[in-house]
Amino acid sequence: MSAAHRLAAVKMAMTPQTCRGALRLFLAWTAALGFWTSAAAAAGFDHRLSFDDSGIWARHNQQALQYTTIAVELGGALWLGSEDPLGRTFWQTIDASIFSSVTAQGAKYIFGRARPSQTDDPNQWFKGSCCHSFPSGEVALQASFVTPFIANYAAAHPWVWALEIIPLYDGVARMKTQSHWQTDVIAGWGHRKRVRVLRDDTRATGVR
Question: Whole-prediction pTM value?
Answer without folding.
Answer: 0.78
